[in-house]
Amino acid sequence: MSPSRSRSALVAVTALVVTGLTGPAAAASPEPARGARCLSREYTEPQLKNLQNVDLADPKVGQLGIYHDELVDDRGAYRGTIMGRYEVKAKTPRGAVLTHYTEDIFLTDGIVHAEGVADFRDVLAGRWISYRAIGVDGVYKGLSGRREWRVIVPDEPVDARITVCG
């Protein structure tokens, strides 16, 4: 399987995720506090580079990868760049392949850091992957919420969204 396909598969794993490293959580947008300011962005995420050693048929603990993706809006305009890393951390007795993701998302109006754990099988199945996102600069600074993505077609750009509130 191509490196791009494996990255797409790993990226898709992040839909039904583990919040932090503690346990699985269904993909959902954050519920903002009354009067909170929220920013939501939806993108297509074409992959520029993926380097990894993950065996897609049988991922092993310790296998990892790095990726460099772009974010474009529905008109095809550039909106940002993602630098990310993923690592297979554990396999459960029920077969879950827990993979840790960490991403720095450089948007045209600020920076968001996203991190969490997802079951690699969910990526392969095209389910939404979701984990915590924290705004660290620009209009996102001090806001928190979710980074979500899913693979629609292997080897094609993924659907992506970020929602942060504060």
Could you explain how this protein is built, in words?
InterPro entries: AOC-like. One of its GO terms (molecular function) is isomerase activity. There is one protein chain. By secondary structure, this protein is mostly beta strands. It is built from two helices and eleven strands; from the N terminus they run αββββββββαβββ. It has a single domain (38-165), classed as Allene oxide cyclase-like (AOC barrel-like), CATH 2.40.480. It has helices at 3-12, 120-124; strands spanning 17-19, 23-25, 38-45, 47-52, 64-72, 78-91, 97-107, 110-119, 129-138, 144-150, 158-165. The chain is globular, with a radius of gyration of 15 Å. It starts with a helix and ends with a strand.
Task: Give short descriptive properties of this protein.
166 residues; mainly beta; 2 helices; 54% strand; disordered N terminus
* Number of beta strands: 11
Strand content: over 45%
How far do the termini sit from each other?
41 Å
Q: Write down the CATH topology.
A: AOC barrel-like
Q: How many domains make up the coordinates?
A: 1
Helix fraction bin: under 10%
Mean pLDDT: 84
What is the CATH class name?
Mainly Beta
Low-confidence stretches: 1-29
Structural class: mainly beta
Q: What is the N-to-C succession of helices and strands? A: HEEEEEEEEHEEE
The DSSP helix count reads 2
Biggest β-sheet: count, sense, barrel?
11 strands, antiparallel
User: What is the CATH architecture annotation?
Assistant: Beta Barrel
By CATH, the superfamily comes out as: Allene oxide cyclase-like
Radius of gyration: 15 Å
Give the overall shape, derived from the CA principal axes. Answer: globular
Pfam families: AOC_like (PF18678)
GO molecular function, one term: isomerase activity
Keywords: Signal
Protein name: Allene oxide cyclase barrel-like domain-containing protein
